[in-house]
């Protein structure tokens, strides 16, 4: 089916859901091993907080991997990068499964990310190749319905593995999931970038093209603003084990359920977003979601100041829930706006947007280590700071931006 025919037809839901399964490897890789961090720390004879540095190590790989796959996929198409990235992911997962050294694990996690990030870059770009801006927002919502099952189920699945096996088994499972993605690419993913739409500018101009994107207000406000809002979730991911399991003494099994509740809220609001995009402007929905997130983060910040670790756990979790669930209204719409005017460099735009998100995740992880305060206040400071700046940038987007002008 050609791009022009899809624009006039109903959304290709089955294809979009398949893309969601491919990109699910990212959140699955981040979240599935979180319940194992305390036991991994015991095996490596380090603290849980030290072992949690494997999360920023993963984000580091995501940042630089996406910056490579973006221009590469704009030049050679969407299929070849998927084969390369997923093959690297499988190899890196096997390294993590077999290692007995924490630094090799950190390096393996970075390599995992360098492979896994291709899914996010290529799927976002492929959707932009085929669909209009409003259809893109709906498509991202559908895709999140599938990939959103990963963070809901992953911690519980990881805890289940720990009941019967050790933490190494989690990485063997991830290697198998990478093989599944290779099979999906082989049999169900087709090329969406036609020869005439490929970016044939010299490779040496990549940096200048990225700089041009960053200066484009139709891209930079939604991409950076959305990245800051999404990055606050990665702050939560980095600190969740320490906060919930170490500070409040929640078991690995119950941690999985609590973590999954936040992801479920995220997925639920992405589905509400499909309905809202038929009735309201995408920018209006994006701004509402950003306000919802920053207010929730502000309440968490105040709770951390006033009560610290004496705060009632359900209150802390409620604040975090609305911060994460609000992403269901901000991420599909911020992505749709950021990619709307980037027809010939959709891969680069997708890559830069993703890299910005995970750069914030790395920065947020550093923020967590800067404040010698209680864990509740620590996460409150980091999330409120990032979400406030993200919300400010979202409100800087031109309210007269006409997405119907995009091709």
Key descriptive features of the protein:
407 residues; mainly alpha; 19 helices; disordered N terminus; MFS_trans_sf; membrane; cell membrane; MFS_dom
Structure description:
With 407 residues, the chain is mainly alpha-helical. 79% of the residues lie in helices and 0% in strands. It has 19 helices and no strands. The chain has helices spanning 3-8, 13-23, 25-31, 37-44, 48-51, 54-76, 79-98, 102-130, 133-147, 149-164, 168-188, 206-215, 217-247, 252-276, 282-306, 313-325, 327-340, 346-370, 375-394. Helix 6 runs parallel beside helix 8, helix 6 packs antiparallel against helix 18 (346-370) and helix 18 packs antiparallel against helix 19. The protein starts with a helix and ends in a 13-residue tail after the last helix. Residues 1-9 have low confidence and may be disordered. It holds the Pfam family MFS_1. Belongs to the major facilitator superfamily. Bcr/CmlA family. Residues 15-399 form the Major facilitator superfamily (MFS) profile domain. It is a multi-pass membrane protein. Keywords: Cell inner membrane, Cell membrane, Membrane, Transmembrane, Transmembrane helix, Transport.
Major β-sheet profile: none
Note the total helix count.
19
**Spatial extent as radius of gyration:** 20 Å
Total strands: the figure is 0
Residues in helix, %: over 70%
Mean pLDDT: 83
Shape: globular
Order of helices and strands: HHHHHHHHHHHHHHHHHHH
Beta-strand fraction estimate: under 5%
C-alpha end-to-end distance:
17 Å
Low-pLDDT stretches are 1-9
Structural class designation: mainly alpha
